[in-house]
Structure formats: structure tokens, C-alpha cells
Amino acid sequence: MGCTQHLSARCAIRNSADVPAPYSRPANWWKNQERPSWKETVTSLSYRRAPSYQFLKTHKAWSFSRLYSDKESTLSKKKFQYYLSKWKEEIRGDSSLTNITGNMNYLRIISIGHSAIPLILKELQREPGPWFVALRAISEVDSVGRDSPGDFRKKSVAWIKWGKDNGYI
Amino acid sequence: MRLHPDREKCFPLLFVLGYEVKSAETPDYRYNCIAFAADDEELWWWPDQDGDAHWPTGVKREVTRDAFVQAYETIGYKLCDHGEVEAGYEKVALYEKNGVPTHAAKQIDEVWWKSKLGPWEDIEHKTVQAVQTFNGIGIYGEVAVYLKRKRI
Fold it and tell me: Residue A137 in contact with residue A111, Cβ under 8 Å?
């Protein structure tokens, strides 16, 4: 039997184990955790149009959705800006729409995927440009701005409206 | 007024043969050289397969000399032998690089031709050679054909 001083010290230790430290998770938090539905997950993302097949039923979906965090959007933004400047540098005084939209940096912007859509639309708001091929490829929407061939300003207006209607901007 | 040095570098003969910038660039891709030579400053002309650019109705959408000649034929041009000035006619020079159409310039008078450099500025240059490729440097290649129509 220890002295009362040591006993109270042991109790203090035990008590401290029972009381959660500030900011820590409660005991068994992982058992009671409510899993968000994929819809909730999607609306919490920066890019609401992330393809739904990434948010299917398994628990893994939650951790996967976290990839679309602000960090991800910052990375996409950096990539977009980099490829955009390279693209402008490379197309120079070219008139060929085939070359302009087939340039490797243009294709790399398409490869960024859905997170590039708001960035492209912002670029269109700043300055009309031949972004409709990229927008069609990423969004899989073929009908926007098709009625004004050659008029890139009208096409831009149509895509910006589409972006607003669909919550991208 | 001259182009930015980075742009001038793309046309090695331009400064040597003489040119002047005539309007600001059009970063909004309003029109291109093919449209400019056809006196259209509102649309981007190109025979892309997706139909995003303007191309005269009934002309094949393919990037070939025939398709470009046919496109200019829809607005009254006919093939001709040379780019010398002919009284009562206006002319267009069609450029090709590696057999692919790249550019068009329009004759203004005895001295000057005018070109739109993609989304960059409109310029006037003293010869058709001014925007041609030289020693492998250049975007547009060489003049492939000339077309003419009666001046209206």
C-alpha cells in the first residue's frame, strides 16, 4: 500500500487517461463515425461536378473524396496557369484551329479534368478564346455554343452561361 | 510601329523587308488571317472538323490547298499565276508549310500586302516574302498559290 500522496498521484494519472485531452477525438470515435453519403461529399467539394463513380458505396469513397481538397484545387490551378502560358507561347501567330486546339499544352489542360472547368471559364470571362474543344471534352456536353461557328465571343458567352447554370462559376 | 521582339523573331525577314503594325492584337480570337484576307474581321475561318470555326458552306472541311482555294472561290477569287499588281484586280497569297495551308495575305497596292498574324496584330508588309519561313525559321512556310478577283 503506498502512501496517500502516491495513491492520489496514480488516481490523477488514471483520471487523466479517462478525460480526453483537448482537441482529441472521443473514445471509439471510429465506430460511431457517420459516413457521409456521396451526395454530401460531392457538395462539400470545390468541384461539384466530380464524376459520381468516384463516390460509390464503399467506405473508401470518403478518403478518396478528400483528394479533391483545396490542395488539389491549388495544384490544378498551378498546372492550368503553367500549361496556359506554355500554350500561348507555342501557338504564337498560328491561325490553324487544328494546331491551336491540338497543341500538347492544350491537351494537358484537358487532362487536368473537371477541376479545370472553372479555371477555363474564368479565363473565358477574362478573354474569349478557343476553349470550347477543351470544355466539350471535359464536360461531355456537346451542344453549347454550336450555333455560332467562327464567333468565339458568342461561344464564350454561351459557355459562361452554361458554367453559371451548372454552378461552376 | 514594330511588333514585340519575341514576335518579330518568328518572321526573320519581316524587319529586313519592311513592315508596319496596323492594329492591336486580338487576344479574343476575333478573326484570323484567312478571314482577314477575305475582308472578314468578325469571324475565325478554318476548316476544322468539329465545325467550331467559320468555313464557307459547301466547301470541304479539310486542311488542304483545294479546300482553301474553294473557300476563296466562294467569294469570287480565282487561281492566278503571280502576285504582281494587275489593274482592277485584288489578290490573295496562300501560304503553305510542308504542304499544309497556314496563312493568307491580301494585296493592298503596288507596294503593300496585309496580314493578320493569328491572334496577334494586323500588319502591312512590303512583299509576300516578308512573312515567309527563312532558314527553317518561321510559322507560315512559303507562298503556294495566288488568287485574284475583280476589285469591287
Answer: no
